[in-house]
Amino acid sequence: MKEDKAYIVRKMLTVVSLILIFATAGLLAITTQLKTITFNYYGNIKSIKTLASSVNAFLLQNKVYLSEDAIIEPSKDSRLLNGMTIAVSSETEESFDIESIRESYSPVIASVKEEIEAIPFEEERVDNGDIDSGTTQVIQEGVEGSRSTSYIVKSTNDKVIQKDEIRSEVLAEAQNRVVEVGTKVSRGNTVSSILSTPVDGGFRQYNIALSVECQQYAYNLCARYGVDYEMFLALMFVESGFNASVGTTYIGLCQVWIAHLPNLSSALGISDLYDPYDNMTAGIYLLSNRLSAYSDPVTALNAYNGSIYNNSYGANIMSVRERLIANGGL
Predict the structure, then answer these.
(1) Residue 98 located in a structural domain
(2) Is residue 131 a contact partner of residue 137, using CB atoms and an 8 Å limit?
């Protein structure tokens, strides 16, 4: 019985010894195949131990991604040897340098800033019938107001990249500049005389954008200067569309040239070409002079417009005259 137990113990020791021998042999084989590789991946260099037998197996084992334009040395099918260097690079892709990225990093800085802005004043114009037309006077000077506005400003490298308003407050209201504009009309002798002349029974009122009083004045003007009433109305329609306030160089109902004003003022006593009565007085005076110089009304009208050769101007006015008479208005 004792011999049987001794036999079993010897047999077990023999089996364990064999296992240890094979395990040691396996470890020796693995140790022999283990290689130390220097891996240069776009400038990042590491030392890696591997059992891979080829460059391609090494890449697969370490899950290395290669782009289409990657250059690998030695080639993927090369045999892997202990101490070998595997380099991955690219002609188009720059190497990854964490230090240079840190140096180039620019933090975004946020801050609250307040700006004081001026609020411009406006000009307010007020009519004053006590001062002459064409004159003005300042009764209140304008004063700028101010506004405080706060912003969240984000900047990097001293350059503002975002600016958001968070609060705005008026510190002082602007005060308008107030200007009085004279509307008092000082009538010259000619205007006063015609305004006081009663309108005779030949007057016809037309449906046009000209007041009845202005139409009556135009009728009396034409009677005094021997000018066709309807032709004069047609001229004003073509020149200004019966707008007394239009123009800066050529002004008002008859579009009288501003350069004529000194002579017209001396001859007629008028002073304001934006005044419809002064303007019509100037217009009829100039037109009557052209009619005296040219017997043909169309040529005289062309001359009023500046050129006796511009036949379309005079013809157009005569056409408007016929339409005015036929329709009773424009």
Answers:
(1) no
(2) yes
Domain that holds residue 62: 2-90
Residue type, 279: N
The CATH number covering residue 311 comes to 1.10.530.10
Helix (H) or strand (E) holding 283, with range, is helix 276-293
Six-digit token string for 133: 């037309």
pTM: predicted TM-score of the whole model, two decimal places: 0.46
Instruction: Tokens for 197, please give them.
Output: 């002349």
Q: Is 175 helix (H, G, I), strand (E, B) or coil?
A: strand
pLDDT in tens, 197-255: 889 989 999 999 999 999 999 999 999 999 999 999 999 999 999 999 999 999 999 99
Give a yes or no: residue 97 inside a domain: no
Q: In Å, what is the CA distance from 134 to each residue of 9, 162, 249, 266, 291?
A: 136, 51, 15, 17, 31
Distance in angstroms (rounded) separating the CA atoms of residues 81 and 35: 7
